């Protein structure tokens, strides 16, 4: 499945639809809040990222390679969740939202990562992290979380664990264009694979999983070997500019989220979707003959 990568000429019909939303003729769908985590590990070719290929049958991004993540669940708002690391107030500052939403986004990021990769960013103290999540009981809990039979707060309490929110870094934010029928307001986090833990092909929403250097993932997307939505592709390009996951996390310490919504902009004699200005040079370099 080949998905054109930015900048992509847009068909005339889509331009007309986009204009109807921009002038108020049509009302955009209300977006759902979501969190996604760029899970990384070191490699000789720079940071490797963990990608899931979504089932082709999925009604959103079917067949696409994505990072672990998903929508915020109402129970992610539980203020009693065991917490270690920056306060919800600090996360609110980094994520550009209120404390309640920030807490829920961080919980969703950790929960979805566990559900979709088997990796758990939690420990039995603020200084430790779970070393192995591959046992049968861990898998039973992961299934219960995935099916919503178990809430994240209950899961952590039963195991005497705290969220290691300090293991997450703030990276970016993307809001689906106003003309899309399904829209997500997605906060992007970065995290290093904890020592001793293993990713597993466990998500019911994916057909396969891949560890691949971010630089190679972008190359494979350019070559049509991997299908990616523009935010995933551009994130791989940006992460690939750094030599290691540690460097990515260091950069993340100084970042705050300014949610970006792609809009229609001119491209030659046609139109395309915009991208954050900081990413334009990265894309231009790859498109040069």
Shape: globular
**Average pLDDT over all residues:** 91
User: Percent of residues in beta strands?
Assistant: 15-25%
Count of DSSP H/I helices: 9
Percent of residues in helical segments? 25-40%
The SSE string, one letter per element, is HEEEEEHHEHHEEEEHHHEEH
Main beta-sheet strand count, sense and barrel state: 7 strands, mixed
- CA-based gyration radius: 19 Å
Residue runs with pLDDT of under 50 for 5 or more positions:
none
Terminal Cα span? 24 Å
Give your account of this protein's structure:
The chain is 32% helix and 21% strand. With 289 residues, it is α+β, with helices and mostly antiparallel strands. Strands 1, 2, 3, 4, 8, 9 and 10 form a seven-stranded mixed beta sheet that branches. Helix 2 (88-95) packs across helix 3 and helix 6 (214-222) packs across helix 7 (230-239). The radius of gyration is 19 Å and the shape is globular.
Write the layout of secondary structure elements.
Layout lengths: L11 H11 L9 E10 L6 E7 L10 E2 L2 E3 L11 E2 L3 H8 L3 H19 L4 E2 L12 H11 L5 H8 L2 E3 L3 E8 L8 E9 L13 E8 H9 L7 H10 L5 H8 L11 E4 L2 E4 L6 H8 L2
Parallel strand pairs: 1-9, 5-7
Antiparallel strand pairs: 1-2, 1-4, 2-3, 2-10, 6-7, 8-9, 11-12
Question: Main attributes?
Answer:
single chain, 289 residues, alpha+beta, seven-stranded mixed beta sheet, three-stranded mixed beta sheet, 9 helices, 32% helix, globular
How would you summarize what this structure contains?
The chain has helices at residues 12-22, 88-95, 99-117, 136-146, 152-159, 214-222, 230-239, 245-252, 280-287, and strands at residues 32-41, 48-54, 65-66, 69-71, 83-84, 122-123, 162-164, 168-175, 184-192, 206-213, 264-267, 270-273.
